[in-house]
Amino acid sequence: MRTPPQRGRRQGRTTSRELILGSARKLFAEHGYAATSLREIARDAGVDPAMVHHWFGGKEELFNACVELPADPAQVLGHVGELPAELRGEALLRALLTLWDSPAQPALLALLRNVTGSKAQAALIRQVLFKRMLALAMAGLPGSAAELERRGVLVASQMIGLMVARYLLRAEPLASAGHDELAALIAPVLQHYLTGPLPGTGSAVPGTGHG
Amino acid sequence: MRTPPQRGRRQGRTTSRELILGSARKLFAEHGYAATSLREIARDAGVDPAMVHHWFGGKEELFNACVELPADPAQVLGHVGELPAELRGEALLRALLTLWDSPAQPALLALLRNVTGSKAQAALIRQVLFKRMLALAMAGLPGSAAELERRGVLVASQMIGLMVARYLLRAEPLASAGHDELAALIAPVLQHYLTGPLPGTGSAVPGTGHG
DNA sequence: GCAGTAATTCACCATCTGATGAATTAAAGC
DNA sequence: GCTTTAATTCATCAGATGGTGAATTACTGC
């Protein structure tokens, strides 16, 4: 009845880092950053709390590692900016859905929960989201910078709303709808925001100038 | 150089309860529920932490008091359900904006931050939001229950996205746009979701039946 | 003006938090 | 096979957290 050796290195391949990352992504996404403790993460991962510090250095760094996207947004959205204007609404939506329904989802969820909560990072994330990702999607569209910014933020508002409703609130029937159905329902609105007529804008997709 | 008496009741009218509520709404809205401590709230209100317990009983109860809406949603949205279908998009949006740009804003902000974070309350809030408020706005519209639910959740997705972008992320130019401008930009989309043609639906606003 | 009650702060408590350093065990290098 | 290095747990820290009970002061009813 010897107590089995607990301290010290385990045999075989080491998995603690991945276990911690998995539990952390899950719990950060579920409860948010502040409401998730390192000890809770460690417990969920079946590991000593000190391991978190060993592998990541601290809570902040762990969170950063959690939201490190396994996919490059530029790669996911890159081709959208090369499509003809009238196809971008649907392409943008499908790119976003594909990204979300991929291994990146836990990271994105953790991110989304904490964009709307206000961590220090939030400002940076906003900037990346709005300036970089949207810039990619709207590259080459006609119109003044101000008009494109306005169109972009409208697109973003609908996409954020969809993500919140589908992945955070899990509101049916959005939560379990397939990509095709969502594309049919929402892509027309995105397309409208991208290239449709807007008040304060002379025409839809004007060829030259702004007035 | 006597230390002025600090303990005991203060002279004049008592304001602590309101001070605490104000600070709590502000801080809950700013940092979220979990990241806001009672002591921080008390410090901000210039009051002893024990006052929070005296007036509210605990953190949970304080939060509940914070999100107690100063306006009755039914009152704000009631008349929307009585308008002809083709006017409801704009009316709904304006009702929401009016509610937000009112003394209720801090409470709503605290609420929104913690709907997307996941407190225990969240499920209840979702239910109230989706089933009750949307039900009011969609009362009397034609179509099957399933279709109305789908239209409703689409409407909600756009409105949530707008609220998040405008009030949480403060993304320009949405954040500082006036009601008229927002109505012109977004009401058509809400109207489209409410009564426009949707895939899986025979026609727009069918008069009778569903197929 | 005296008694009761309400408002306020203080001094604590148990618990949890993120974090550190040492001890222990296994793997890797040679 | 011995040494070095990496992985793991333990014991522990200082500080913050939500919460409680008593002491102190002012207002209120009579």
TrEMBL record, chains A, B:
Record SUPFAM superfamilies:
Homeodomain-like (SSF46689), Tetracyclin repressor-like, C-terminal domain (SSF48498)
Give the DNA-binding residue ranges: 37-56
- Matches recorded under InterPro entries: Homeodomain-like_sf (IPR009057), HTH-type_TetR-like_transc_reg (IPR050109), HTH_TetR (IPR001647), Tet_transcr_reg_TetR-rel_C_sf (IPR036271), TetR_C_16 (IPR041678)
* Annotated ranges, domain HTH tetR-type: 14-74
Query: What Gene3D superfamilies does the database record attribute to this sequence?
Result: Homeodomain-like, Tetracycline Repressor, domain 2
For whether the record's keyword set contains Secreted, the answer is: no
PROSITE patterns, per database record: HTH_TETR_2 (PS50977)
Superkingdom to which the source organism belongs = Bacteria
Q: Molecular function (GO) terms listed?
A: DNA-binding transcription factor activity; transcription cis-regulatory region binding
User: Which terms are listed as keywords in the entry?
Assistant: DNA-binding, Transcription, Transcription regulation
Question: What's this protein's name?
Answer: TetR/AcrR family transcriptional regulator
**What lineage, starting at the top, does this entry show?**
Bacteria, Bacillati, Actinomycetota, Actinomycetes, Micrococcales
